[in-house]
Structure formats: C-alpha cells, structure tokens
Design brief:
alpha/beta; Spore Coat Polysaccharide Biosynthesis Protein SpsA, Chain A; two-stranded parallel sheet; 39% helix
Length: 252
C-alpha cells in the first residue's frame, strides 16, 4: 500500500523540530510495511517554516515541502496537498500535535477493520477524550458537530477534525468549495451524501503544544452556520447540488 501524509503548516517555525521528530518516528514504523510519502503544505508562512522543514528532511526524498506564495487558508492547503499526494490512502493531520501523529497506525487500522472509505478522528465519540482545550473552542467545535449530527448523520460524533484517512477514490470523486476551516466538514458531509462509508477513530484531542492557532472563531462559526442553513434548506426543499466530480466525458 502507498500512503500519503498531508500536513498543512502556517507560521509554525516554533514547532518544526518537534513535529519533524514525531513524523520521523511514525515514518520509521509505517515504512516497515508501506511506501510512505509526506507532503507538507506551507501556506504562505511569514516565518521560516518552509526552510526549517526542508532542512529537517533534506535527506528524505519522499518528504516534500510545497509552498503557497501567500496564505490561502486551510482548505486551499488541503486541496494543494491532495493534488501532490500519490498514495492509495491519504492521511491529513494537524501540524501542532493536537492529534499525535504516532496514532496514525491506529487510525489506519480502524479504516481496515471497519472496511471504511474515510476514518475520522473523533474526540466527541463516547470513547474519545479532550485534554486541556479551552472551553470556548469546545463550545464551538462540539456545538457545530451536534448540529451536523442532526442535519446529516446522527452516528457520526465529530465533524470538524482535520485528522482523517481517505481512500484515494474519495479524493478523486468528491469536491469541496471552502478555502478555510470549513473544508474538512464539507468533504465529510458530501462524502456521506455520495454514499461513502465513514467510520470514527475515538481518540484524544490535546491542547496545541506550541505556537498559536490561526483559527478565527467568529468567522468560522459564521461559515458553519451558513453551511448548516444550506443543508437544512436542502433537506426541506430537496435538489441538493452534487459534489461528485463528473466522470470523463460527462458534462460538469
């Protein structure tokens, strides 16, 4: 199996060495059985994140750093990462250690055991946990996830996690519009609506171990509310727009 890790980064110079050390550790384990590449997406960082990453992995030809000239947002970074990833399975995860990369083997195991197309980290699952995360962040994230459960699928507990594994067919067939933090939720919602199998990996969400988050709670909350309103209208009036990519020769 070929595996791709896609890791967006924005102004993360403070934690580059820590993240690089963790990534090297999990690569050593994963590469015992798999062909593994890493795509870091430097999303227009104003510090020396890209240079530090390139120096950390200068001896590993299967680790690449792809850079945006300007900051485009998390969704745009994910999209760029997907464009450069060549794996049969693509794992996206946070740069800041909120979900330890050392748990990637467990995440992949859950995908295999449950025969799923997507496996998503789920701290809000009954068997999941949250440690040290500020209350205002939990209110936003847990509240948003609860509304998506009501609007889309009650069996999925967490909708806002970046930490996920996707089979390649999902990435090739499903589109998402947002360039920001809404992107991962869009991708999960549209994948479920297209019939892909989703399972959860109950795990622990940790407080960021270094640096500062770039998320703007008010802005992201507004984006989720607009998206949720659209989903509600679609459930009432029908005719949702398909986000499946057209087949070759099929009108877009």
């Amino acid at each position: 199996m070929k595996l791709s890790l896609v890791i967006p980064a924005y102004n993360e110079s403070e934690g580059v060495h820590q993240t690089a050390t963790s990534v090297r550790s999990v690569l050593e384990y994963l590469r015992m059985k798999n062909d593994v590449e890493v795509v870091f997406v430097n999303d227009g960082s104003k510090d020396d994140t890209a240079a530090l990453l390139q120096d950390e992995f200068k001896d590993d030809p299967k680790v690449r750093v792809v850079s945006h000239e300007t900051n485009k947002g998390l969704g745009a970074a994910i999209r760029t990462g997907f464009q450069h990833a060549t794996g049969d399975i693509i794992v996206t995860t946070d740069f800041d250690g909120t979900y330890p990369v050392t748990t990637i083997p467990q995440l992949l195991s859950r995908m295999t055991v449950d025969d799923a197309d997507i496996v998503t980290a789920s701290p809000y699952h009954p068997n999941g946990h949250v440690e040290g995360v500020p209350g205002y962040r939990l209110i936003f994230s847990f509240g948003a996830s609860l509304l998506y459960r009501l609007l889309v699928s009650w069996r999925i507990h967490t909708w806002t996690a970046l930490y996920r594994g996707y089979k390649r067919q999902v990435i090739e067939n499903i589109t998402f519009e947002s360039d920001g933090f809404l992107a991962g939720t869009e991708l999960l919602v549209y994948s479920l609506k297209a019939g892909y199998r989703v399972t959860e990996f109950p795990t622990t969400l940790h407080v960021r171990t270094f640096g500062q988050s770039s998320i703007k709670i008010a802005r992201v909350t507004k984006q989720h509310m607009k998206f949720q309103l659209r989903l509600l209208k679609e459930s009432i009036f029908g005719s949702p727009r398909s986000h499946r990519k057209p087949l070759v020769g099929e009108p877009s």
